[in-house]
Amino acid sequence: MVRRALLVGLLLGPLVVVLHYVANLGDTLEFVLSALALVPLAWLIGEATEHAAERTGPGIGGFLNATFGNAPELIIALIAINEGLTEVVRGSLTGSVVGNLLLVLGFSLLVGPRGQLDRWSSFVSFGAIGIAIALFLVPAVPSWSGNPDRQEIVDLSVPVSIALLVVYAIVTYFSLRRHRAMNRSQDDADVRVDAWSLRSALGVLGVATVVTALVAEILVGSLEAFAEQVGLSDFFVSAVIVAIVGNAAEHGGAVVVAHRGKVDLAAEIALASAAQVAMFLIPAVTLLSWLIEPLALGFREVEIAALAGGLLVTAATLFRGTVSKGRGAVLVAAYVVVVVLFYVAGNRDGGTDAVALAGALA
C-alpha cells in the first residue's frame, strides 16, 4: 500500500513544475506541494541507490546517492548567488553538512537494526570533514570582523576551494578502489536476482535528480515569503529549512534503506554526503560562483562551531563502529541543540555572538 502510494506520488513532482509555470498557486501552496513532491522523489532515489548498491557494494552505493542527492543543493546555491543571497548560500551549505552528520544519520540509526559499520570508511569521511573545517577557518576567521563578502575573503576562498577539491579527489580515488576490491571479493550469488541492472539504476537516479532539482528550486522560491510569515531569520531558514529541503534525497534515501535493514549503506549515504558537501560541493559552488558573482567562504562563528561540534559528536558516538537506536537518539538530540543555536543566533547583522550563546546554553 505504501509503495503504491509512493509510486502514484511520483506524478506530483512533474505536476508541481507544470503548475508553477501555468497557474498562480501562491507561495504557501507551492511550498506545501513542493515539500510533498520531494517525499516520493527521495524514496525513488533511495530505491535506485539500493539496486545500484547490489551491483557495486555499499561504499560506491553511498557515493552514488550522495552525488545525485547533492545536485539540488548545487542548483539552489547558484540560484541564490545570482540573487545576491550569499548568507543563504553559506548557511544552507553548512547546515547541509551538519544535517547529514546528525539528523540523517541519527534517524537512520533510529529506524534501522543494530549492526556494524565499516569503521575505515566512516573515519575517512570524518577525517575529510575535519580537514575541510580546518581549511574553512582560513577565510572564516578574518570575516568575523568587517564585511564578510569583501574581496580579501573572496581571494582567500579560492585557494582553499582548490585545496579541498584536490584532497577530495585523492580520498575518493583510494576509497573507490578499496570498495571495488571488496566488491570483487564477494560471491556473485549474493546479488539479488530481482536487482535492477546498474544502467537502469543510474538512469532512474539521473531522472529523479533532475525532477528533484526543479521541485527544490520552486520550494526555495517560496521559502522567503513563508519565512516572513512565520517570523524566522534568513539565517535559520537557510541553515535549517533550505538545508533539509536540499538534502531531501539523502534524507529519505538513507532512512528508507536503513528501515530495510541495510544500516551500513544508510550510514555510507549520510557520511558520504556530509563529506561530499564539505569537500566537493562547497568548493565547487565557490569556484562556479565566479561565473555569476564570486562567493566568499566567510562562515560565521556559530556555523564553524556547529560543524566542529557535529563532527566530534558523531565521531565519538560511532567510534566503536557499532550502531543502535540509542546512538541514533544521541545524534538527533545533538541536531536539536544545533537548531536552537541557529535560531537564537539570528542574522549576522545584530545576531547573537556564537561563543556567548554557547556559554549561555552550557
Notable features of this structure?
single chain; 362 residues; mainly alpha; two-stranded antiparallel sheet; 15 helices; disordered C terminus
Please explain how this structure is put together:
The protein is mostly helical. The chain has one domain. 80% of the residues lie in helices and 1% in strands. It has 15 helices and two strands. It has helices at residues 2-9, 12-22, 27-56, 58-69, 71-82, 86-111, 119-143, 151-184, 198-230, 234-246, 248-259, 263-288, 301-317, 325-345, 354-361, and strands at residues 115-116, 322-323. It has a two-stranded antiparallel ribbon with strand order 1-2. The longest helix has 34 residues, at 151-184.
Secondary structure: elements and pairs:
Layout: H1 2-9, H2 12-22, H3 27-56, H4 58-69, H5 71-82, H6 86-111, E1 115-116, H7 119-143, H8 151-184, H9 198-230, H10 234-246, H11 248-259, H12 263-288, H13 301-317, E2 322-323, H14 325-345, H15 354-361
Antiparallel strand pairs: 1-2
Helix pairs in contact: 1-3, 2-3, 2-9, 3-4, 3-9, 3-11, 4-11, 4-12, 5-6, 5-9, 5-12, 6-10, 6-11, 6-12, 6-13, 6-14, 7-8, 7-12, 7-13, 8-12, 9-10, 10-14, 11-12, 13-14
